[in-house]
Structure formats: structure tokens, C-alpha cells
Fold these 2 entries.
Entry 1:
Amino acid sequence: MLRLRQPVGDITQGVIWKQLLGFFFPLWLGTFFQQLYNTVDTVVVGQFVGKEALAAVGSTGVIVNLTVGIFTGLSSGAVVLIAQHYGARRVDRVHNSVHTAMTLAVLIGAFFMVAGFLITPWALTMMGTTAEAMPGAVLYLRVYFLGMIPNVIYNMGTGVLRAVGDAKRPLYFLIAASVCNIILDLLLVLVFHLDVLGVAIATVCSQVLSAALVVLSLMRAVGSPIQLSLRELRLRRKPFADIMRVGVPTALQSVMYSSSNIVIQAFINSFGTDAVAAWTAYSKMDVIFWMTLTAMSQAVTTFAGQNCGAGRYDRMRRCVWVSAGMTACLAVFISGTLFLFARPILAIFSPDDAVLAVGVEMVRFLTPFYITYILVELLCGAIRGAGKSLVPMLISVFGVCGLRLLWLFTVAQAHHTIIVVMASYPITWTITSLALLLYYRFGHWLTPREDVPAPAQALERAAE
């Protein structure tokens, strides 16, 4: 029987802020390389192939982001389940959950591979892809979908590693994949002149590499409850149900966020080319804030999961406010920097004076409100770590997506200005934060369960 003799990734004891930062920095760097990984294809075709190829690859971005959001959401179910069992020192349940999660990754990847390949032309047509970009877009997306199985395996496998406190190896794997993607992009486009097909093949090869590294690391975890054995890969009813219970609402939340952003983009498009260019440049600027918030939210989810499993509910609650304090400081710093240096930063993406004027207006309106959103991610992350994701999802979807759409199709229709459209962000962020805060304070999301050990019992198991 496997025993957790040395819980290297144990975060049920120790200084909370140090442990959160120990998770945060690798996750932040990982998100940075993920952004790099996703933009290299666009840069290479834009610089070395032409605008038709750039349009082809760029037009697939919404679908790619949508699928990645679904996989990340589903993998969060595995993170929470494994982190809870790991915190409770239930090594057999960790072992079963890992094998269920990895089996699920293969099945989900196979489904999306076949379904995505078949519906690609229809999906691109529904999005209004131009006739010039359509052939390249279909080619790129179909090759991308052929790499779905390694894509999902990577997301699920890194979730397993994060659940047991290992945030560094997923970062190393992502760096390796990013370097591989860059090298293959340049080789296949500049040397072999494969154009859009070349960048698509490079992306899939990078996904295969990252998946292989994750699987190899899990198979070599000898003596650990997360050690992967190919012979034991199968769906187990209870872990499968628990993963889906947390993962499906999280994935749906990601889908709804993406959908509301598509509507925002449509409204921005109505203001003309300068507004679209300014919005594009601004979105490249504010990614630094969303990277920071996403990394902290993921750290909180893992921290909450392990401490919930160990029965350390006091540490869960302290974690929320410690992370909120740190994130608020980071949000103020990022907001201030972007506000003060809006024009020179925007000029990196566009030197056009008209675009810069609109972009500066956008930046200086939205950045002071960043702080109103941080509780949405942090509270959702903590509550999700306790295994309760449905209610936070409903609150977030209604507040961030539902109210935003209501604002856009009523107020923004009557008062058609860029500022009114953008006002949908701080208004919905504030309302959703308050709603989640009320649920966090008064909702029964942290009811102790009978199968969760007391803290002392959990620590005794660690010493066995």
C-alpha cells in the first residue's frame, strides 16, 4: 500500500503568505509562457508569410481559447479532488483520482479531436471568417484539433502536479514546449515554407512534447500516490463524479466569459477601425493583470483544497484574506503603471495618433477599477477548493456575463459611446464581487464533512 511518508508539497502547515508566493510565481511565469506559446504562431505568419495567413491563424483564436478554457475548467475538478485527498493523507484515493483524471483526459481529448475536426468549417463559417482566410483557417484548426489528446493530457497532468504542491515542473514543461514551438515555427515556415500548415504542426508537436514530459514525470514518481501506471488507467465512478461536479461548472463559467467578450468585441467593432485597433492594443497591455490574477486564483484553489482535506478550515479563511491583500497591492501597482504610462506602452503596438487617443481613454477609464474584480477570482478559487463550484459559477455567470449583456443591449444601445460600453466592466465586477462576498460570508459552502479528518489526525497520518 502506498504511504505518504514525506509530503513534499504539503501546504497544510507553515506561513501562509510564503506558501502562496511559492505557488504564485511559478504559476505566473507559466501563464506568461502560455501567452508566448499562443502568440508565436501569429507573429511568425504575420512577419514571414502575409496578411492572409495572419488572418487565417488569427480567426481561429476564439475557438482555441474556448477549448483551452474548457480543458482548464475540467482539470480544476481534478486539482480540487486530488488536493483534498492529498491534504487528508488518503493516498489510495489520490492514486485512484489520478488514474481517473488521466483516463478522462484521453477520452475528452479523443472526443474533441473528432468533433472539432468535423465541425471546423461550420464553426468558422458561423463566426463570419472571410473567404480569403477560410482555407488557411480550416487547415490550421483541423491540425490543431488533431493534437487534442496531448493538449488535454498536459492540462490534466499539470493539474495533478499542482494539486500536490508542485508548481515548478509544469513551468519547466511549458518553457520547453514554448522553445520547441518557436524553433519549429521558424524551421517549418522559413526553411520548409509550409506557411500555415507549418505553424499548426509546430503547435501540435509542442503539445506532444509537453504531454510526454508530464506523463513521464508522473510515471517516475516512484512511491508517490500520484505515480502513474498505464495498466491502472480506467474511470472510477466516485472520482469521476467528483471531478465532473467541480470541473463542469468551472468549464461552463469559462465558456460564458468568452461568449460575453465576443459580444463586447462586436460592440467595439461598431465604433470603427481606430477603436478596434485601440481595443486590441489595450488587450495586449492588460494581459499582465489577468495573468497575475489567474495565477493567484490557482494558488488559492490548491491551497484551499489541501487545507480543506486536512480539516484546516481556519487556514482556508486566512488564505483568502492574505491573498486578497497581496493581490490588491499588485492590482494597485499594475493599475498605476498602466495609467501613468498608457501612451508609450500603447505606442509599442500602434504609432497612429488617432488609435493612441482612443486607447489612452480606454486605459485610463478601466485600469483604476481593476481592484474591484480581484474578489471574484479569489473567492471563486477558495470556494472551488472546498469542492463547491456550482453556486460561484452561477453568481459569476449572472453577474459578469448576464448583467453585462443586459447593460450592453439596453444602456449601451441607448447611449452609444465607447465609455458606456466599457462601463459594463466595472459595474458588473463590483456587483459580482459583492454577491460572492455575501455568499462567502453567509452561504453554507464550508460545512465540515464526516469523511474529513481533524487537523491532528491528518498530521498523524503524515508521520506514519
Note: Residues 250-451 form one domain.
Entry 2:
Amino acid sequence: MSYEMWTEKYRPKTLDEIVNQREIVERLKSFVEAKNVPHCIFAGPPGTGKTTAALCLAHDLYGEGYREYIMELNASDERGINVVRETVKTFARTRSIGEVSFKILILDEADNMTADAQQALRRTMERYTETARFILIANYSGKIIEPIQSRCAPFRFTYLPREDIVERIRYICKNENVEILDDGIDAILEISEGDLRKTINILQAAASVGKPINAEVVYSVVGRANPYDVREMIIRAMNGDFIGARDKLREMILKYGLAGSDIIRQVHREIFRLNIPDRWKVKLADVIGEIDYRLIQGSSEEIQLSALLAKLTEAGHEIKRGL
């Protein structure tokens, strides 16, 4: 079992190694062949390969010593106007020595930059295009001001397909000599929701237990209830067994150490898998939303979750009556 973080160990090093995102990869390869890169915005959900694609582009463009030609800044930590005026401008104004005449500045989480910092960045991008190219990485490109967007080539990353994530999980498990069962893979996929970075982190956490990775191990290491337990609690309530459902709720809280908001999210997901009329799914979704709002406002978790089970019990009674 390696102590190295698997997310770094199995991060692709070149564009050819990137999982999925084939259209984006082909566009980036054309930049490498031309040895010319425009300002870019990499936008999309977390864990879909945005930062990795930027680093792979730099690797293929500059070679093994690419780290000398790039600067990485995380805008979540350094997002003020002074950083743009000092750190970014100092890097951008110096010319690259080598076959490629420009350097690359990778600005991660650029959508968290202040408006003033973005305005300063816009001017820097205009003045130093000859010596530096900017790759802005964002989860929400709409938070980046329009003048910057108009100066950049957009790249939209999407969640990875299930089959690609499963293939990556099996590849890592084979290399790390970790035994994983099919229900363990399904549990990881349900929790990660297409985020490959999150997938690998969960996989390493589950492997550290030292047992074959099954669903129970996965849910225990991430602090999530097994969906079967959540579904059992809901069915008990809708069958009129309010006390039994409440006991199941308390059992899950003690077993998994769950917060009220975690349980609410899982109940919301399971409601839409129940075999009940669609109009009742709508009503119950509305009830869950109200309970979630009350929890955010600081209401008692035990009281609000009990109220939710009471609503489920009432709904089950009315559904049986055909109302």
C-alpha cells in the first residue's frame, strides 16, 4: 500500500494519457503542434481534469522541464488586486528563453477572484500577450467578467462517463494490489458523482482499511449512510411505523456519525427511487426542501428530522387511501 497520494501518482502527465475529454485534448494537441497557445478558460465541474489538462499541455509544449516555464496560482488563496499587480505582472513581463517564446500562467479557481483583481488581470493579459499566455480555470465561467471571457478560447469540461471511471478504478486497484468488489465500485460511483479526483480519494481511504473494498467499507470511511438503510427508514415511515423509522434514524446517526444535512440529502435522493405516484414525489421534495431550510437556519436536527419522518408517515397513509 503506497503512502503517496494516489491523485498525484495517477495524474496524467501528457495529453495522450487524459481520460475522456477527447475533443478538448485534440484542440490542445493542435496548439502544441503549432507551438502557439491562446489565452484559455477551462470551465466545468470539479474533478473533470481541468488543472491536469493545463499541466499536460505545458508538459507537451515545453518538455520535461516545463515547470520552469509555468506559474500556478490558486485564486482561492491569492485573489486580491495586489497579487495581479505584483506576482502576475512580474511573471508575465519576462520573456521565455527557448523554442517557445512565451510562458504560461495557470490561474486555478479564477472564478473566486475579486472584480477589481479581474479588471487588473484583463489589462495585464492585453499588455503581455507576447511573453505570457493565461489559462484560467473555473467551475463557473459566468463569474469571470465578460472582457476576460472575450479574450479567451473557451473549453467546457464535462463529468466523466461511468465506464471510464470504472476502468480507472480497476487500473489503480490492479497496480496497488487492492481487492475491490462490484458493490464497492457502485458505492464509490454513487458518492463521487462523476468527480474523478473525489473517486480516487475515496478509493485510497477505503483501501487504507486493509479489507476488500465493498459498499459497507466505502460508506463507513466517507461518513455516508448506506442507501439501503436510508430506504429502509423511509419505507418504515411510509408503512406507518413511525417509531421504527425513528429508531432506524438514530441507529444510522450513531453508526455513521451523520449530520442532519447529510441525511436530508440522502433522503431526497431515495424519494425519487420509490415506487409512488409522481405527484407525491413532488410533494415530498417540497417537504424535504422546507426541512433542509430550517436546518440551515439553525433548527434542532432531532426535531426537524422527526418532523420529516412524521410527514413521510402521513404521506404513506394518504397514498394507501388513494388520495
Note: Residues 75 and 109 are 5 Å apart (CA to CA).
